[in-house]
Amino acid sequence: MMGTSLRQKQQQPPLDGLAPISESEFSFTIARVAVAQICQSVGFKGAQNSALEALTDITTRYLEAIAKLGAASCNSNGRSQSNLPDFIVALEDLASIQAVAAKRSFFQGAKRRLLKHKGDNKRWYCNGGSWRHVPSWLPPVPVVEEQDKEAEGKKGEVKWECWEEREEEKWECGRETVERKCDDEILQVSGKRGKVRFRMGVGIR
Amino acid sequence: MNGQSSQQQPKDGRHDDDAALTEFLASLMDYTPTIPDELVEHYLSKSGFQCPDVRLTRLVAVATQKFIADVATDALQQCKARQSAVIKDKRDKQQKDKRLILTMEDLSKALREYGVNVKHQEYFADSPSAGLDAASREE
């Protein structure tokens, strides 16, 4: 008796009147509810079905675009897990203007932390665990005078401190000139490193 | 440099940008975005965006919510502009104001500024000669 009733249950469709839907339709339906709630919070009292579905499609595409750009940004930096700068880069690529201000504030903080160790390389490895990835024989951050106006006049080359103010306009062309300028100003390497000798042709018989 | 390392900064007056960002990330946990976390994680993992930090997931949800809210606000303004352009007596106008409906027309106008081209067919005809004058039709 129990066996036959179970078999009858399995032959029936899972829910009366509802066919099983695919996984993408399922997430689309949930996204549609969320988008409808957002529209309601903005002030709409109702929506056409086609308009709501079009907006939901755009929402899913926007999410996937952010994810794809963020993943590409982190992969190009040799990481597999994305973090906040990757997300900001993704927003910038999507031309969401608000991301630029967030990126500037984030990199200002990072740069300030770096410049705190100007002229003193002992702090690289002494400062807890946050700088242990930096080798101790690296020279310290060079101490450069605060001459912003001079830097402006040199054919568009900018000093490292003024970098982030001009970052948005001259990101592409300024980067190479900044790197060249930093090479000129690197001081002597503090701390002796052992000499390395090579002998050519040792392995050839 | 992820959100974790920015939290270790001491909060000086000079680090107010950093502190503001850290506080914002912390406040994200108090505010639940309209788009559920699981849905956002589903779409993020679908495209390869791995992130163990739930705050970043919420940040993505908030960014998306803001984008959709901007589009919806623009569509609402289009709807209201269209209603105010229609000159009718006051009673009809008030009845219409209660019925702000998101239509394809308003949505496509709003989305055009974001670079999304959503065009709706004006009408459908069952033959190429439908709607033409009888004189120009070849019979």
From TrEMBL, chain A:
Residues 24-99 form the Bromodomain associated domain. It is found in: Nucleus. GO terms for cellular component: transcription factor TFIID complex. Pfam families: Bromo_TP. GO terms for molecular function: protein heterodimerization activity. It comes from the Eukaryota. Keywords: Nucleus, Transcription, Transcription regulation. Its main location: nucleus. The keyword Transcription applies. InterPro entries: BTP (IPR006565), Histone-fold (IPR009072), TAF8 (IPR037818). The keyword Transcription regulation applies. This is Transcription initiation factor TFIID subunit. It comes from Sesamum angolense. The lineage of its organism: Eukaryota, Viridiplantae, Streptophyta, Embryophyta, Tracheophyta.
From TrEMBL, chain B:
Its main location: nucleus. GO terms for biological process: transcription initiation at RNA polymerase II promoter. One of its GO terms (cellular component) is transcription factor TFIID complex. Keywords: Nucleus, Transcription, Transcription regulation. PANTHER family: TRANSCRIPTION INITIATION FACTOR TFIID SUBUNIT 10 (PTHR21242). Belongs to the TAF10 family. This is Transcription initiation factor TFIID subunit 10. It comes from Sesamum angolense.
